[in-house]
Structure formats: structure tokens, C-alpha cells
Design goal:
five-stranded antiparallel β-sheet, alpha+beta, six-stranded mixed β-sheet, Beta-Lactamase, 597 residues, 21 helices
């Protein structure tokens, strides 16, 4: 309970007077209608005290209990009971209310029972049945000591009447103390409910006077109210039907049949409980269903909103990769309409390599581990072009999808990869730049140190490039550099690395190439490829170059040393007549060879 509620509970004279007045009116109603042999047959009032006290911290119970004791005493005095006898009714009723409030507060039921059948049953058991048993025992002791002869018939009336009164009013009282009287009145202030309440009262009156098994017929309107108008409607309907039955009993319209046993008359009233409890439980069950349905709808709306608003490409598919849902960002990015995507296998929107990895790597991993991540896939746009996307996928199994439902999250990393590519590649030739080449050669040195391998570094400088660039224009010069890059790629192996350092300088990392005849052949192949006829935009251009090679580990064990020695060998080749190839020799005694210029 919040501080405001604590403050109100402790201070409000108005609240205490209202509680005491409600108790007094209900107690006087029971006394005037049902008092027989000194005990009211059906007692409604204690529900007010139990519901009120159960909402208060124990330290604030003092004044409300005093007001309730005063209301008990006053009701009995106004009902014609002498002072001493009236005071004997106080402990039993207070004991019942204190026990019920303590049990409800201790178990947390004071904060509401509205959406759980289990809590509703516990409310009746802890708030009505157990307290009534305690109150009956206390009253029997006190009245017996006061000279009132107590029979089984009388005790059963007390027990039964208190239970009927509690079942009739306690759920309503707990609802009102939780929601507030004004809120409850707003929830029931409907013409439809008023019409159903009048119908329920009319059916009860007619059934009790004209029909066999009248309590069954009296429950029918209550079931309909529970179904149609919910818990708030059935709470007030139960109370009114209970009051109506009690009024009929007091008027003699509904009387117990003759019986040989004294306790038989008392048990005549038990069917009232059977009239009230099933509609109450039905209403609670329906509230549970409505609450669960609303929670599910809210969860689905939140999921759909999250699904659509997440700044990533999302799609869901089954274990075979067939797409069942897709978010708007995926459709916008890929250029498809939803009907073109749903029911299609996800690999249809991937490039060949990505589709193979999705089938052979992602789906099996999801089936075994339930998660797959870290793979970059290439997605094909409808209008052409590719999206590079980082994949994270999870697989969930439930009773509706025993084979698993897969959620795939694709983060568009195209710009990131493009930026990384530009950071490590020459923008003109698309070859690796100095930064990436240095990383590759450093890695090769580390691998060679661990595994004892060898490789060569070849330095290429184009002959007379400045004259071509100045004489034919920079565009022809750029096209010439691009053509050289393509010829080098066609000539060398896929495991080799070709880089443009800048200007007309190219450098190559030749994997597993050592000194000797193979290196000589490789150099000559490069020179021959460069020497092939070349025409750029209708202009015939002659290409040639000078190549220098250094070998790991013979000529150096690190990137800087190998590059420097390859550069020295290249200058030796250039000084030897151009269009030549030379290997590094310590002391500069290189022997150029190649195609004469």
C-alpha cells in the first residue's frame, strides 16, 4: 500500500464512519429480517470489516476495530438486545473479521483476486470459511456462558448464515476496497446491467415461489451476467439475488420443508451458496481468459511493432528456410513486395556462395545449437546490386512449431565493408594498397617463421610511364595502370597478392616461390604479359616494366627489409636496360635478365 493509502487509512474519520455505517446498516438488516432465538440467521455485515481491515497495515487497525465494535453493539441494541447480551456478540464477530483480514493480508489476497480461480477459491476459504468457524466457536463459548441455550440447530444457523453472507458480499467488498467505490459504480452504471439485474431479481422471486429446485433457476441469470457483463456485473448481481432470497425467507415465501432433524432446517439454506459460487467462478474464469487474450494481443502488437521498427532486415522462416514473415525494412532494401517474398525459400534472395553457406552452414547449426551468427551474406536486390548483411539467427521450438521457427536478423554492413575495402584498396585499380600489402607480407613472414616456408616479393616499375601520362593524357595513363593491374591478375596465381603502391609502382607477394628457375620463369611471364599489344581508346600504347625480386628468408625476415631489397633489385633491372627482371644479391651484384627493350 502506498503512503497516501497509509495516510488515509490512519486518519480518515470519514472513512471510518462510512465503514461503521455500512456495517451497521447490513447488521440491522440481518437482525430485523432474520433474528431467531437471539441469532440472526444470515449475516452480511462482517464482509465489510474483513475487506476494510485487510487493506490496512496492522498498526492502523486500532481505530477501525473500535468503530466496528461500536457498530456491532449499536446494531444489537437497536435490534432490541440488552447491553450485556449485545456485548457478548462483539468478540465472535470481531474475531471473525480480524481472522479473515489477517489471513487475506498475510497471503496477499487483499490486493486482489480478480484474475485467478485459485485466488478466488482461496478468498472464500481464507476470508469466509475459516473466519466463520473461528467466530462461531467464540460466539458459542460467550453465549453459552451468558445463559443462552445453544443447540446444534442454532450453531448451524450461525455458521451457515455467516458463510452465505460472506460469499454474497466479501468478493464485492474486496473489489470496492481495491478499485474504489466511485470506480466500481462507473463500471456498473450501464442500462444493460440494470436490465439484467432486474431480470435476475424477477427470476429469483418467481423461481422461489413457483418452480421446483428454485436455486438452479435463480442461478441462470447470474451465469448469463457473468458471461455477458463480466466480474463487476456478477458481484453486484450475486449480492442482490442473495438479498432477494433472504427477503423471501423472512417473508415466509421461501420456507424450509418439514424435517425430522433439527439440523435439516438449517441446511435448507446451503443451496444459496450453490447459486452464488458457480457464476462467480465463471466470471473469474472469463476474466482470466480476457486478460490472457488482451495480454497476448498486447504482446503481439509489441512484437510486431518491434519487428517492423527494428533498424535491421528481419525475416522469419521454417527449418527448410521458407519465409513466413518479413519486415518493411527488408522489403524496402531489397525492392520486393511482400507477396513476392512470403512462401519463398530465403536462399532465392542470396548470391550463389551465400545461398550455399546458408543451406550447409546456417540451417544445420540452427538445428543443432539453436543459434548462428557472424556470417556475412550477399543479398541480391530485385533491381540489381548486392547488399552485404551480417547474419544473426535464432531458432525457437514450441508446440505449434515442433521443427522450429527461425528468426533471422540481417544487419546491412555494405557501407562498412565498402569503407573497409576503400581503406585497404587502391581506388583506381581496386588492388590492395600499401597498408593491406604490408599486413599480408607481415603475416607471411610470421607464417614462414613458424612453418619454415618461403616466398618472394617482386617490385615492378613501369618503363616510360611519365612520358605516356604526360603525352597522351592522364586518362590514358589511368587506363594503362588499370590494364597493367588486370594483366598481372591474369598472369599470377590466386594465392599471390598484387598491390599498387602508388604512381606506376606495383609490388607482388608470390607465395611459396624461392630463388631459382621458377622465379626466373615467373619474372619472364610477367614481362611477356606486359609486352602484349595494348590499345586504349583507339590509342596504341606499348607497355614494359622493370622487376626486382627478393626472397624470404634469404634476403630478409621482415616486410621493410624485403621491400627495400626488392626495390634495389628493380633499380638494377632498370639500369640494365629496362623491360628486365633481376633478383636481389647482397652487395648489389644483381644479374638482370628478361625481354630487351
Amino acid at each position: 500500500m502506498n503512503e497516501r493509502a497509509h495516510h488515509t487509512a490512519r486518519l480518515s474519520l470519514y472513512a471510518n464512519i462510512t465503514m461503521a455505517l455500512a456495517y451497521l446498516l447490513l447488521a440491522m438488516l440481518s437482525i430485523w429480517l432474520f433474528r431467531a432465538g437471539g441469532i440472526a440467521i444470515i449475516w452480511f455485515a462482517n464482509a465489510v470489516g474483513i475487506a476494510t481491515l485487510s487493506r490496512l497495515p496492522y498498526r492502523f487497525w486500532g481505530w477501525p476495530v473500535a468503530w466496528l465494535a461500536g457498530a456491532i453493539l449499536l446494531a444489537n441494541l437497536l435490534g432490541g438486545t440488552d447491553v450485556i447480551q449485545a456485548m457478548r456478540f462483539i468478540p465472535g464477530n470481531l474475531g471473525e473479521m480480524l481472522a479473515g483480514a489477517w489471513l487475506l493480508r498475510r497471503t496477499g489476497l487483499s490486493s486482489g483476486f480478480f484474475f485467478s480461480l485459485r485466488n478466488t477459491i482461496r478468498l472464500i476459504w481464507l476470508g469466509v470459511c475459516l473466519p466463520v468457524l473461528l467466530g462461531t466457536a467464540l460466539t458459542a463459548i460467550l453465549l453459552g456462558s451468558g445463559g443462552i441455550p445453544l443447540s446444534l440447530h442454532l450453531l448451524l444457523h450461525w455458521l451457515e448464515g455467516s458463510m452465505i453472507g460472506g460469499v454474497s458480499l466479501l468478493p464485492l467488498a474486496v473489489w470496492i476496497t481495491n478499485q474504489g467505490l466511485s470506480n466500481y459504480l462507473r463500471s456498473v452504471a450501464r442500462l444493460e446491467l440494470l436490465a439484467h439485474l432486474l431480470l435476475a431479481i424477477a427470476v429469483t422471486v418467481l423461481a422461489m415461489q413457483l418452480l421446483p429446485f428454485p436455486f438452479i433457476y435463480a442461478s441462470l441469470p447470474l451465469f448469463y451476467i457473468a458471461y455477458r457483463l463480466g466480474l463487476s456485473g456478477v458481484l453486484i448481481a450475486n449480492a442482490l439475488v442473495s438479498f432477494t432470497i433472504c427477503l423471501l425467507i423472512s417473508l415466509g415465501t421461501l420456507a424450509p420443508p418439514p424435517t425430522l432433524y433439527s439440523w435439516g432446517t438449517a441446511l435448507f439454506y446451503l443451496p444459496i451458496l450453490a447459486t452464488l459460487l458457480p457464476p462467480l467462478l465463471l466470471a473469474v474464469a472469463l476474466e482470466m481468459n480476457r486478460s490472457a487474450s488482451l495480454a497476448l494481443q498486447l504482446s503481439e502488437r509489441r512484437y510486431r511493432a518491434l519487428y517492423q521498427q527494428t533498424p535491421a532486415l528481419l525475416f522469419s522462416c521454417d527449418a527448410a528456410g521458407v519465409i513466413s514473415s518479413v519486415n518493411q525494412l527488408w522489403l524496402q532494401t531489397m525492392g520486393y513486395a511482400q507477396h513476392e517474398v512470403l512462401g519463398t525459400v530465403a536462399t532465392e534472395f542470396m548470391d550463389q556462395d551465400s545461398a550455399s553457406r546458408f543451406r550447409n552452414q546456417v540451417l544445420p547449426q540452427l538445428a543443432q545449437e539453436g543459434r548462428s551468427q557472424g556470417l556475412v551474406l550477399g543479398l541480391q536486390r530485385k533491381q540489381g546490386g548486392q547488399v552485404s548483411a551480417l547474419l544473426t539467427a535464432t531458432c525457437e521450438h514450441d508446440e505449434f512449431n515442433p521443427s522450429g521457427r527461425i528468426l533471422v536478423v540481417l544487419l546491412d554492413v555494405s557501407e562498412k565493408l565498402r569503407a573497409e575495402y576503400l581503406a585497404y584498396h587502391d581506388p583506381l585499380t581496386q588492388l590492395p594498397n600499401r597498408l593491406l600489402f604490408t599486413d599480408r607480407i607481415t603475416h607471411a613472414c610470421q607464417q614462414g617463421e613458424r612453418n619454415g616456408g618461403q616466398f618472394a616479393v617482386a617490385f615492378l616499375d613501369l618503363d616510360h610511364f611519365k612520358a605516356i601520362n604526360d603525352g597522351l593524357g592522364h586518362r590514358i595513363g589511368d587506363l594503362l595502370l588499370i590494364e597493367v593491374a588486370r594483366r598481372l591478375e591474369r598472369t599470377l596465381r590466386g594465392s599471390d597478392t598484387i598491390s599498387r603502391l602508388g604512381g606506376d609502382e606495383f609490388v607482388m607477394l608470390l607465395d611459396e616461390l624461392g630463388p631459382g628457375g621458377e622465379a626466373q620463369l615467373t619474372g619472364e611471364k610477367i614481362l611477356a604479359a606486359l609486352a602484349e599489344p595494348c590499345e586504349l581508346e583507339g590509342v596504341a600504347v606499348r607497355i614494359s616494366g622493370s622487376i626486382g625480386m627478393a626472397f624470404y628468408p634469404r634476403d630478409g625476415g621482415d616486410a621493410a627489409t624485403l621491400l627495400r631489397h626488392a626495390d634495389e633489385a628493380m633499380y638494377s633491372a632498370k639500369n640494365g636496360g629496362r623491360s628486365r627482371f633481376a633478383t636481389y644479391t647482397p652487395g648489389g651484384n644483381t644479374q638482370p635478365s628478361g625481354i630487351s627493350s
